[in-house]
Amino acid sequence: MNRRDFLKQAVVVGATLSTSSLNAFAFGPRSLERRGATKKVIIIGAGLAGLSAAYELTQAGHDVTVIEARTRPGGRVHTLRDPFPDGLYAEAGAARIPNHHHFTLKYVELFGLTLDPFEPTSLPSVYHVRGKRIRVTPGQRVEWPYDLTAEERTLGINGMRQKYIWSILGEVGDVTDPNWPPPDVLRKYDQMNRSDFWRSRGASPEAVALLSVGGIDDRVETWSTLFMLRNQALNRKLNRYYKIRGGNDLLPKAFAVRLSEKIHYAAPVVRIEQSAQAVKAVFLRAGAYHTLAGDYLICAVPFTVQKNIEVAPAFSVEKQRAIEQLPYLSASKIFLQSKRRFWAAEGQSGFAKTDLPISQVWDVTYKQPSKRGILQAFPISLHSRRVTGMTEQERINFALDQVEMIYPSMREHFEGGVTKCWDEDEWARGVGAYYKPGQFSSLLPHVARPEGRIHFAGEHTSVWIDAWMQGALESGNRVAREVNSAL
Ligand SMILES: Cc1cc2nc3c(=O)[nH]c(=O)nc-3n(C[C@H](O)[C@H](O)[C@H](O)COP(=O)(O)OP(=O)(O)OC[C@H]3O[C@@H](n4cnc5c(N)ncnc54)[C@H](O)[C@@H]3O)c2cc1C
Question: Does 304 share its domain with 372?
Answer without folding.
Answer: no
